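Budget justification note: compute hours in this period were largely spent on complex prediction jobs such as the one shown. Inputs:
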Amino acid sequence: MPIASDNIGKRVVANAAVSLSSPFRVFFGLLLIVMAKDYSFLGELPSTLFRPHLFILSNLLDAWPSAAFFKGSFYLKILLGLFVVLGVHTRFALLGVGVVGILQNTFIYSFGKIDHSILFDLLPFVLFFSNLGSQHAVLPDKKWHFEKEAVGAFAFIVVYGFFTAGIGKALVWLDFDLHTSGFLSWFLSGYYSLGRDELLAEWVLKFPPLILEIMDYAAVFFELSGVFFLFWSRKMWFFYLTLICVFHLMNALFLNIGFAVHIPVVGIWLFMPYFEKFKWLVITIPLFFLLDNILFVALSWLLMSILGAISVKNEC
Amino acid sequence: MAVAKRSKQSKMKKNGLPIFVFFVLLIPFLLKHKSSSFEIYPSIVMPVGASLMDLRDSISYITDELYGEKEGKVQRIDVGLFLAPIPRWYFPAIIKSSFGLEPVEKVYSVQGFPFSMRNYNRFSEEELTKAKKMYRSRLKAMGFNDSYFLYRRYAVKIEGDSIKAKKIYENAYCL
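Corresponding output:
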């Protein structure tokens, strides 16, 4: 049922509401441990490769921090992940993980390229406002009443993030010309230069111009339209989450771009009903992240797409 | 009419915060749109990659490659292995920094403002020696002559089943 409210904020909060509980905390803590990265090699590199962008914290420095700094942040992240799993002052562990993660990224992006994992980077800060650590925890947190608002704000950030990707494409890709292709331009640079030639990548070279043009428009429509789905209704929000999964599945299959960090982002909404029923998923899903292979990422997105479709049905 | 105006004002009041947040979030996006060097981290901006390819006669694209000397012949260097553990996708950014083997600088100034901003690699003779030593040991470990490597840029054209590559740029980096 669409929620009749002319207050955008309330509408978003209601449409995106989800009740997060301790199984999600254990899942996310394990994921943090599995995904913790040791960047100590950066400390060994010459500073002649240190060229951060202008508006990034590392630009205040004149060299890579020491290897010990990166080693320390790696172990700190694992320790904080363990605190999240056990529920030891979960809120502050999440805050710590968020800050350490952003600091680590600040330096790995100092070659002069910023990657776009921002939705995942923000996730600990969103969960900070939740009550994940209030139950089944070693040192439980007090209950707060900001969870719905935080999840709603995060839903808005998700659609806004995709919007920023879509608006730039819309200005160039929507040219109503079958003799040009934006999708192919993206594909070829990865296929020939970065070795992204696995799964169904070869098929792309055989796509007729009409299909390529449709793919350009479909990507732009998907990236720009999230905000409407989020405002429309709860059911349509879950439909958009399913579209996100299908979009990433296509990217994994054809472009070999996995973007696995978006799995827990979408997982906030799609995993919860299953974590309550099938607790073993809490442990097995993070293990998938150890298998750094595009086939497994594609399979994960396929499963996520199915979960999305089921959740849309459940919202009917 | 007055009632309609009041209702519109009340709607604006209720939605003031989300609208304000939207405009604040737009700032990093607009800065990145102006230049990738202006991209803020952390900020809510996702990858655009809005280039376009002309499919009229043939498909063409640009590719960057590294070459070195192995067993007396110039052979292609596997960039992923050469850079590891630096992730492969930072290769284009490393090229822009001349592999850390030359000082690189881009100065940005805003018309009417008395200051400028520098995007530069932190270059010094001491660090240059460190960079050369690093590349030498990597080339040696891969079985290449460790005194130099070549950076080449190719324009590749695909016509039907044939793929033609034309070298459009080459730079030798002596170590």
